[in-house]
Amino acid sequence: MKILKDIIKNVEIKRIIGDDTIPVHAIEPDSRKVTQNDVFVAIKGTQSDGHQYIDKAIAQGASVVVCENLPNNPDPRIVWVQVDNSAKALGRMACNFYNNPSEKIKLVGITGTNGKTTTVTLLYRLFESLGYKAGLISTVVYKVHHQEFEATHTTPDALTINRLLAEMVNQGCSYAFMEVSSHSLVQHRTEGLNFAGAIFSNITHDHLDYHETFDNYIRAKKMLFDSLSSEAFALINLDDKNSRVMVQNTRAQVKTYAMRTMADFRVKVIESHFDGMHLQINGLDMHTPFIGHFNAYNLLAVYATAVLLGVDSTEALTHLSAQHDVPGRFQAIRSSNGIVAIVDYAHTPDALVNVLNTINQLRKGNEQLITVVGAGGNRDKTKRPIMARVCVEQSDRVILTSDNPRNEDPNDIINDMLAGVDSANRQKVLTIPNRAEAIRTATLLAKPGDIILLAGKGHETYQEVQGIKHHFDDREEIKKAFENL
Q1: What's the rounded mean pLDDT across residues 452-471?
Q2: Which is deepest, 26, 93, 338, 452, by most CB within 10 Å?
Q3: Would you state the CATH architecture of domain 99-320?
Q4: Is 364 exposed, middle or buried (0-12, 13-18, 19+ CB in 10 A)?
Q5: In the prediction, which pLDDT does 211 show?
Q6: 233 forms bridges with which residues in the sheet?
Q7: Which candidate, 259, 302, 116, places its Cα nearest to that of 201?
Q8: Which residues, including other chains, have CB under 8 Å from residue 470's CB and lie 6 or more apart?
């Protein structure tokens, strides 16, 4: 049990009605999960307004209600806490409830359109290999040292974040590395967290279904850097034209990394092939099994972060060079007859350009490149034709298929993508809504030495159709297709 006044410390409060010294059991923003003596936080969300469920929460035992709008006749049995923004309040309350774990661990967040998962995963692996206990909060998995938990969101809700961080502290972790999505920043899920540092990777066309405009998307990402303290570092990719915008108002110490621009940390690709790369980072040589310029940026961000956290530069490179690929991120799978399949999470136009450019730079002769790609349903529709056009321009054959259609008809999504393909390139394109069949077809079209790109789902082990998640894994499907050749 916690005392209410301790939980609402540093929360911007407009008014309290009742006794703020009462003990409370838990904090709950979901009225369906409220139990006896809980604090119910009524949040105005994108789908529903928690204020509509206050009576239900009280009926289920809530003793405290945190809300933006007080009812006309507040129940005198309940303690009422009125705030300007319930989502921000929840973030602060979650930190207090779990004894502010982010102040007891070095927490580093990364935001950007592409590269977040690879970067935080490599940071976690690097610090574990250096002998530290570390935590990870990523799109793929949550980790407390060696203990794994299923990831539900790129960045979970404030209570889950703080619960995970508290467990990391309890398990003796010194560092935590977290993906910070634009959605989570706008929804204040990271409110109240103390970041030791933050990384900006890049920003490209994505999530405009949610943010509506590109400027809103940029402002969302910038919130992470606005929240940093003067003791933190802000590491930005100077090759991205929006990087300086991110740190316009930050109090943190700004550090830069780049491949094309003069920066504090620089990388040069000396040699690149399907088995890896030879890099030069700040004048030091490094060999890595990772492929592509986009991964050179990711590795540079990891190296720079490690150095900024106090790791010796040579030691950081030595341990980083031993790291292997991240599941579903430019993951190569080979058939017995020499076909190479690349499984990648690329689901934005820019990510597809990066992956396709990398493959085309590594092609040595007349290999055929066959791209299997779809677009998610109930998400930003404006990127669909752009994704198809990018794939057609840089591939020999393209199979348009399903990704996670969600509540949309896969054929409608494919037709939206086809709008980006001009008549001269239509003969390159097949449309096969069944993703497993599309993958099988790609293997039948391929000859020894050819390359198949499976784009969009990467590490995912499901396909979401009409609200139901069905088991589906691109890596499993391509392996089965290869076995049947």
Answers
A1: 95
A2: 93
A3: 3-Layer(aba) Sandwich (3.40)
A4: exposed
A5: 42
A6: 197, 253
A7: 116
A8: 462, 463, 464
Q: Is 298 exposed, middle or buried (0-12, 13-18, 19+ CB in 10 A)?
A: buried
Radius of gyration of the chain (CA): 24
Q: What Cα–Cα distance (Å) separates residue 468 from each residue in 2, 295, 353, 464, 472? A: 38, 33, 31, 5, 12
Supply 477's token pair.
């499907």
- Which residue type does 127 have? F
Domain regions of the chain by residue span:
2-96, 99-320, 331-483
Task: Kindly report the CATH number that applies to the domain delimited by 331-483.
Answer: 3.90.190.20
Judge whether 332 and 342 are in contact, CB under 8 Å.
yes
Residue in this structure with the two tokens 């009524």, named with its chain if needed: 42
Residue-wise pLDDT for 108-129, tens only, equals 999 998 899 999 999 999 999 9
CATH H-level superfamily of 2-96: MurE/MurF, N-terminal domain (3.40.1390.10)
Sequence-separated (6 or more) residues with CB below 8 Å from residue 229? 194, 195, 251, 252
Tokens of 240: 């991205």
Instruction: Please measure the distance between the N-terminal and C-terminal CA atoms of the chain and give it in whole angstroms.
Output: 61
Residue 189: half-sphere exposure toward Cβ, Cα within 13 Å: 23
Sign of CA dihedral 459, 462, 463, 469: negative
Exposed, middle or buried by CB within 10 Å (0-12, 13-18, 19+), for 149?
Answer: middle
Nearest Cα residue to 46 out of 222, 209, 226: 209
Please report which confidence band the pLDDT of residue 152 belongs to, taking 50, 70 and 90 as the band edges. Answer: confident
